[in-house]
Write a structure and sequence with these properties.
Two copies of one chain form a homodimer.
Chain A (H helix, E strand, L loop, with lengths): L3 H25 L6 H42 L3 H39 L4 H33 L7 H42 L11 H37 L1 H4 L1 H23 L9 H28 L5 H26 L4 H9 L4 H14 L2 H20 L5 H14 L2 H23 L4 H48 L11 H40 L2 H5 L6 H72 L9 H37 L6
Amino acid sequence: MIDFVLLIVIAICIIALGLAAILTRNLLSQDEGTPKMREVADAIRVGAEAFIKRQYSTIAMLAIVTAVVIFAIYYLTGQQAIALATAAAFIVGAACSAVAGVVAMWIAVRTNIRTASAAQTSDGKALDFSFRGGAISGLIITSMSLLGVSLTYIALGADPTHTPFVIIGFAFGASFVALFAQLGGGIYTKAADVGADIVGKVEAGIPEDDVRNPATIADLVGDNVGDCAGRGADLFESTAAENIGAMILGVALFPIFGVSGILFPIVMCSLGLLASMIGILSVKGKDGADPMDAMNRGYYITAIISAFFLFGGVYYLLGATPGWMYFVLAGLVGIALSVAFLRVTLYYTDHHYRPVQDIANSSETGAGTNIIMGFSVGLETTAVPAILIGVSLLLSYWCGTMTGIPQGGLYGTAVATIGMLMVCAYVLTMDTFGPIADNAGGIVEMSQAPDEVRHRMDKLDAAGNTTKALTKGYAIGSASLAVFLLFNAYMADIAKLTGKAFEVVNLANVSVFVGALIGAMLVFLFASLAIRAVSKTAQYVIEEVRIQFKDPGIMAGTKKPDYARVIDITTQGALKNMVLPGALVILFPIVIGVTMKYEALAGFLMVATITGILLALILNNSGGAWDNAKKYIETGVHGGKKSEAHKAAVIGDTVGDPFKDTAGPSLHVLIKLLATLTLVLAPLFI
Amino acid sequence: MIDFVLLIVIAICIIALGLAAILTRNLLSQDEGTPKMREVADAIRVGAEAFIKRQYSTIAMLAIVTAVVIFAIYYLTGQQAIALATAAAFIVGAACSAVAGVVAMWIAVRTNIRTASAAQTSDGKALDFSFRGGAISGLIITSMSLLGVSLTYIALGADPTHTPFVIIGFAFGASFVALFAQLGGGIYTKAADVGADIVGKVEAGIPEDDVRNPATIADLVGDNVGDCAGRGADLFESTAAENIGAMILGVALFPIFGVSGILFPIVMCSLGLLASMIGILSVKGKDGADPMDAMNRGYYITAIISAFFLFGGVYYLLGATPGWMYFVLAGLVGIALSVAFLRVTLYYTDHHYRPVQDIANSSETGAGTNIIMGFSVGLETTAVPAILIGVSLLLSYWCGTMTGIPQGGLYGTAVATIGMLMVCAYVLTMDTFGPIADNAGGIVEMSQAPDEVRHRMDKLDAAGNTTKALTKGYAIGSASLAVFLLFNAYMADIAKLTGKAFEVVNLANVSVFVGALIGAMLVFLFASLAIRAVSKTAQYVIEEVRIQFKDPGIMAGTKKPDYARVIDITTQGALKNMVLPGALVILFPIVIGVTMKYEALAGFLMVATITGILLALILNNSGGAWDNAKKYIETGVHGGKKSEAHKAAVIGDTVGDPFKDTAGPSLHVLIKLLATLTLVLAPLFI
């Protein structure tokens, strides 16, 4: 039997997809710029499509093997009844995630050229195009995630107390693909970027995005495959995993709320999608205005409408308890946390505030002090977010307890997480806007457009940098709120499998402590390998660019460099080097769980998550701060471009690149992958 | 009643102090070198003594306030009977730690000049002198720690089941002083080093330790106050805290072993001190030989003799259980872990192995890639140590369980910790040897001694760098093994105070999880502030050196720079900037414990410890690897000195300085400070 509220979810998703279709049609009908622009854009598109094709072929093979393993594990551990369903859910989740990534990339490589063309006449129009390009991705990815969960739930029988435990396969499939998509894309984008900068800017002394540099197109391809496709897959699996985790918690409340408590998460997210549509449509670019103003206004509109929907949704679905208002409060805690995280991230990565200025100051005494200060700022950025997360968890737990229902506290944290997730589609829009603007800027630069066009794009590009940093803050904030509910979903799953309560993860138990230690270590080791992968792949790029630069025709600008060769080398390198870190984070928890059993694995999972959240904050924010310190100096302070301080700041930016665009975002996925992996493979650990 | 075995401990300590006295007399009778050397050495001595005097005055004030607070807490929480005793034990521990630091510094500033003088004729003799200087510190510090614990135990009544809970004040006093000593000294030494390098090497292009650089003397003072005094205080509190923690666990075994189980830790450590004396006396320098050979041989001798003593000690004191052999095995696990940690650290920081070579290779493409690779290596170094610690904990716990006595597993980990601590005096000797050799090298350089003397000292200096890295590995290894027993001591303490069992720290409990998150964050925040403190203090140094360099007489070498002024500025800066990070790590656990109570605080403590261990490994090893990559390039590879690769490697080394000599070692102390602080202030958290 299909519940009525599920139809609401499906209806809203269809509306969102319809809006996306309209926006896409409008966008595709726009002008594609000068022939020179088209030449650059075509090269980017071809490169991105080639990479995505090869990347997803590799991932598909890995996913099929994993699906077989999942089937075998369930079959051999006495779970024959759901073996096929879990493996199938995994494949569907993986496929949906892949489609999400491909769509994000497909839109981005078509929006960039139209944005560049619009910038010839109007910066307001350029903002509109790039923002709407982001919106198309945001709407499609979010509605696919909700549709995927809803339809899989229906297909698996829609048994409220049973299906949520089977549908976890979907979440694991999504995380699995997201890990490799983010990792491979992240390695690609930064290897090309670092390689292009080192040989181009540092060794040959030519500007960024110079047509003579054979690695520039690869660098622009990277924005699409890393930032668009990778982050699209990341946020797709976030919504999937967090919704499913909350549904599992809802099972415990079945006697009170019935199926409403279980479907509550996806219904609320679909209402959030509706709010996001209104927010998106409210954004209108204006010539000469700061693009951040329009986007921030849209964000606040989305958040406020979401708050009203939250009130209505809780009343309708969870009104069975007299204390339902406390659930509304818990949801508001989540929405407030999303706003607070954006503000904190802005403080640490915007040049109007102390941290970035400190880094810029310390560039005057060289690269050494620039790096020391940036790293110190990165470490510092853990403080306020950790306290915010702690307070939000305690507060939403308290709210849940005040409703007076059993396990209410836990469900309170789930409601807070869902509150935070409601604005997801809007955030994803802002997130994808960034790399599109960045790409359009590159096209304008490489097509040697007039200065005024470049200035228009520079402004948009700077806003894109800010939104990229902000949305990373949001991603890690929502992940940290979600993990607590995912742990508890894992514990509920184990309890269901063993048939006895599992409520204690005792850190004073030596095996749990060792599990926790290994968990924390895995996060550092993963970050090490992700960063190393960039460095290794960049070496191939550097060697190739150096060879091409030996050709005097290329440096003189009379001969076109071989962009395709660099793209090919980067693709091969990224795909090769993503396997080791990816495999490691899948194998480690399995080994710990099989040898030391489920309680030690819970310790592993929880402390890995804590460490992962904090390390992701460090890497994302230090990288963002270094980048903006460099940009700040380029505005003319501390001697401006070409000064010694600028040289030092460029080195800081290079160090920050793999931090903020490879290791940091991959850690977001890692956190949720560990949670969904332990959920799905739970039968192995008992 | 004083137990017979306590007399053994006291007797061995007196023998060790006697040996230290003989070594000191011999050393002081040696030649003090040329007048030029004496001039440099005097300046270092005066600067170091001035800093230590001011530093310990500041620490003394902070300690007196803390003692009053401890007294008040105990008095007001119904523990009047032991309020005065605990506060007094704190003061005694603090005073002993201060004396340990002062002694280490006093010996070092007198050994450096004699080592420099010996290097005029023989490198074997230079090794003998500097190693024996280190031995004097090692023997005095270790025996003071054991004597302090023993005599405080006797003074507090020697009641086996009660006194261990009062004597924790001693351990907290020692940790308290060690934190500020290591932090202040670490800030001092690296601010002077970074400041001297940036203005001297980078801006003015003059060599390291050039007499014209006004910051060189401050840099050499830093070796004494940071590496000697700071690390002396660190290892003093390690032995004290770990012995006392193990004694508390022994209380639970009182019905089986009587007082033997409680005094076991200090008896074994005193036997280890005896083994270390034999090891120390076996080291004999030989002209032309690699100094590491002699020191490694001494280490293995110490470890083997310790293993025999372990067998005898366990048989004599714990023979009451038929399974006593398993305790011997647990102790051997500890000794083996100490050897394994040295090997792993060597692999990651010595240029004969892949990691340092990778960093050197990546210096060819500039500072950016050098830093990325170094940081990646640092993150990687957590992997094997974490697994080693995990396996050792599980193995020693298993050994303890096999003895068949209740709580045997826990006591097994305590025996392993004690096994690792047995070689402490020898390790401390190697550790103090490093900065003495470094200082002697500086004196030789600044007194413009002939080239052959410099070459002799360079070899010793390189060995000193290796031993410094190795002993940091040992310190963090022993700390990680010890923390598990310190947690359990805390839990035993809480159980004693509340009168009910406290055996579960449930990470699935929301307040424990939040405590754990905040604990991990505190470690990153502390590291941030420690690194920032170096950067801030270095800024003062840089400004002063730049001002002095404007005087043409100084650059021409005709006018002596004002060394004292730089020393004074560095002293003030270091003392000012150590207060914030120090105060933070004391206040944070108190706030968490008071607001969220003892179980959440246990989560805080355990996860802070895990994060602290791993971050210390990252910071120590990346710093050591960067340093040695630079030294490796200086041997002529990748273009040698003055090449672009070398410039990049110098920047990496600058970044590594505050990592490995300020934040990293301070984290060792932090870990144990948190454990002893929670133990002592336990009455507040119930």
